Amino acid sequence: MRVVDAPPKVDPVTGETDEENLGLVLDRDLQDIANGLWRSGAEAIAINGQRLTSTSTIRAAGGVILVDFKPVTSPYEVAAIGPGDLAATFEKSPTAKRFKRYVDSYRMQFSVKKRTGLVLAAAPEAPLRYARPPSPSPSRSASGGPR
Q: Where do Low complexity bias regions lie (predicted)?
């Protein structure tokens, strides 16, 4: 899948670009696409080569979108591995239908293409964390004082 920011509007008289571009891809757009792909049966997803896991984050910092704290820029290439009908199932989803409306309304680019033999890089290994019992607090004197 490919999602691209809309080009900025240019005033035909002055030639200046409009600062407000409603067709920019946002972090929540990529979140919606990833969630729509998971719902459609995806088994593995990557955004611009950044493999997603169950603990991945997609968020914005300033004007940049970060996938697991690594910046990604337009055009956004979202690759997904799943059942043979993944592309068709996703294209029928509410998420894909909404993005097709964005193409018409905001000039954003959105396309889905089925590929075979797709290979995604392995997800980074998450560091293991272990629970530890709290350290014992110093006890009060045995003189019967409050504990």
A: 138-147
